[in-house]
Amino acid sequence: MTSFKGTREAYAAALMDMADEHPNIMVISPDSLKAMRAVAFGEKYPERYVECGIAEQGAVDTAAGLASAGMIPFVGSYAGFLTMRGGEQMRTFVGYTNLNVKFIGVNAGILGGEREGVTHQFYEDLAIVSSYPNFTIFTPADAAQCYHAVQKAVEIDGPVYIRAGSGREPVVYDVDAPFAESGITVWKEYGDDAVLFSSGFVLDRVLAAAELLKEKGVNVTVADINILYGKDPSEILKVMAKSSCLFTVEDHNINGGLGSYISRLACENKPAWVTRIALTDYAESGPAKELADAYGFSPEAIAEKVVSTLKK
Amino acid sequence: MENEKLQQIAKKLRFEAVRMVYEGKDGHPGPALSIADIVATLYFDVMNIDPKNPEWEDRDRFILSKGHSCPIYYAALNERGYFEPKVEHFNLRQLGSMFQGHPSMHATPGVDMTSGSLGNGIAIGAGMAFAAKALKKDYYTYVICGDGELQEGVCWEGINTARGRNLDNLIVFVDRNGWQSYKSVEFTVGQNNVADRFRAFGWHVQEIDGHNIAAIKDAVAAAKAEKNLPSCIVCDCVKGKGLSFMEHNNAWHKGVPTDEQFAIAEKELGGK
Q1: Which residues does chain A have within 8 Å of residue B124's beta carbon, measured at their own beta carbons?
Q2: Which one-letter DSSP state was computed for residue B87?
Q3: How many domains does chain B have?
Q4: Closest C-alpha among B104, B133, B102, B106 to residue B118
Q5: Whole-number percent of chain B with pLDDT over 70
Q6: A105 with A215, same domain?
Q7: Mean of the per-residue pLDDT values for chain B?
Q8: Please, are residues A72 and A100 in contact by the beta-carbon 8 Å criterion?
Q9: In this complex, is the C-beta atom of A161 within 8 Å of any C-beta atom belonging to chain B?
Q10: Which residues of chain A have pLDDT under 70?
Q11: How many CB pairs under 8 A join A and B?
């Protein structure tokens, strides 16, 4: 496998690589074929590409109809256009019906939406989808992980939502590293002063924060959570047990994503201090890196939050 | 099946729908009666189905997009033999019942698609129809939606998709009874020109009397003869059709007959 320019390219590559083995895989496009980098799929498999036009609700419905007849439709578009505008269709005609439709939400988070501005940045998608029973939620941390997540999604019989970006995702994982079925990958084990949970494209920043903390004598564990609200959180619970000070870092609203998930696990299993580093407001346009820094995701800001919290 | 026999079945379904609402003490009888003749013709004449094998992959598909009309749907499935044993009391909308307030594909055998959130049936039907093309199957997908329902924007998304993808295996019936929850469709949107709208979107369009069995059959045949275009059959219907106190009375959009009214239904619809 070669490397990918970003998560969307990885998505398209995964589909192409699986297309012959899985003839029921289809691409449903609310005029997103180009944005999803899936033009080659549409050209090679025209009978497996459904263009629905700029119409997310109808695209999700059409995917539901296809899935009811045994197809495996992938609907890719901007995360919020799917989960908000097409949200009712995702809930009622894919979640409630438990149909085998796969969703790829791009431009997720400020790192995904960056220059486009608030209308095209989506940091609410996970909160929405996590309240739809039957959905499996994947949050790959980089492009290669997205490739594996798309492949993993096909193995699941039922709705899957995969969170993707816009090409600003830094490479963290080895390109061949599998998409962890346990929902967690431990990256650093410097110590038990705190556990830092990351989800999505901020992983490199959390890892950098761990290095800064180590220099300050604060030794933490860093883990990437790639499946949210999964059926078996046992491996996550084991890592949570390492410290009573837990931190979550996610490019998403503070409600409904990783922070809510870890808080719930802590409440239900082993009480701990959970500090959530996430978005609390709408963002704005800007270069991805500068934007992420400005909204609290710089390694320095993450490290500072950990230090100040541990002092309390 | 002979038209006269289908008319008798439609009458029976009407009674069963009213009985279902009367016994369950909740539901939408007026919209159900409106489409009784279409549903009877589809399930007892037109559709290629096997009630003993409701998941048969080559079956014709049906979506009741105006899902609140489901009492007539449940009655048709029951009469057609989808349930073993045949259902005597539907327990419509009751806890634990297989007959949900709106159709659920996993609750009720024979229901091809969950519905009830208005507007979605055409786009879902487009997906089913496209799947038939992709799988090289010759099944048809039938959708019934309401004229008020067409106010939902997503209807027109599905209408675009079906036209854009040349889904000539998708046949949509519009129950043009002229009413919606509060007032008339005309009051709501100024005009109820369903046929003009579908024509403007490039569909093959027919306009018929939705209570004329022969016309329904002929329209389906004409729709099937049309190649490349999806078909819309605009059916002029009477809300509450067949029951004197319900016909043209929009108060029966949702409502439960009293004991006295149910006695009238038994008399007029041959329940007794």
Answers
A1: 61-62, 64-65, 68, 93
A2: P
A3: 1
A4: B102
A5: 100
A6: no
A7: 97
A8: yes
A9: no
A10: 1-2
A11: 115
Q: Do A68 and B113 touch (CB under 8 A)?
A: yes
Contacts of B61 in chain A (CB under 8 A): 68-69
Q: What is the pLDDT of residue A168?
A: 87
Q: How many domains does chain A have?
A: 2
Closest-CA distance of chain B to residue A250, Å: 33
**pLDDT by residue (tens digit) across A17-34?**
999 999 999 999 999 999
Our CA angle for A31, B169, B218, nearest 5°, is 140
Enclosing domain of residue A248: 184-311
Question: Which residue range forms the structural domain that includes residue B7?
Answer: 3-268
Chain A residue with CA closest to B157: the answer is A58
User: Residue A260: helix, strand or coil by DSSP?
Assistant: helix
CB B229 within 8 A of CB B163: yes
Q: What is the CATH number of the domain that holds A19?
A: 3.40.50.970
Q: Which of B114, B131, B165 sits opposite A69 (nearest CB)?
A: B131
Same domain, A237 and A105: no
d(CA B45, CA B215) in angstroms, rounded, equals: 13
CB contact under 8 A, A51 and B164: yes
Per-residue pLDDT at B269 exceeds 70: yes
pLDDT at B272 over 70: no
